[in-house]
Give the backbone structure.
Amino acid sequence: MFKTKFPLAWTFHRNTSRWLHNLLEPADEPNPEPAFKEYFGKTTLSLPEPVLPETSLREAVSARLSCRRFTGASLTLLQLATVLNTTYGIHSRSTLGDLEFLERPVPSGGGLYPLELYLLANTIEGVEAGVYHYAALHHTLELIRSRPLTRSQVSRLFMGQPYVAEAAVVVIFTAVVGRSLWKYGDRGYRYILIEVGHAAQNLNLVSCALGLASLNLGGFFDADLATVLQLDLESEVPLYAVAVGVPASANRAELRQPPGQNNLATP
């Protein structure tokens, strides 16, 4: 069934499988891609140090759901800083001989960390609405586009889902694919997809711990989103997004339903 019904997926999976005869030799050249992306000359905003609430893992996991009803209220800058740092920031530094290692909150194939985070900021206290890049190395925001998208534009980007535009912020995960493919070839793309799942789950859980809600988004128009983020699709691609905001209800079943639907079977 896999091969015949979904030939593209089968081809990718099969061609990135490993056998004894196709193991890769260690790369002779250093990684040609910078470890971090920075936008020099752009307006930057320093973020406060993150503060994690005293919430148990059990509570955060139990609270997670796919929220489609946001109030439109603002996030604080501290909440945003905590979400971003816990998702994919720098937590500490360690050394081994002459090498410095940056400790980050998710595992990464080969320690290469190919992901970058962008924001469609709608309502963040003290932050002008617009499009930003999260510079993890410095824990700052870099302003990419000062003119905010309209709600209809945001909805259209995410394939007509109107509730996405009510979130305070949409965090978009991209991958600088060369950081991983340089070492692992086509199989590195598998590792990138695994990693973005790790990071998105961190974002989901810390959002819940902060009393916020989130909605994971795999459906979007790739080329249009890349244009908004000013990406070169030959080297960096959008993979995933998560809308984050203040939930509009305490009723979990209601939060899952788009506005206008009220099939509230379970509280």
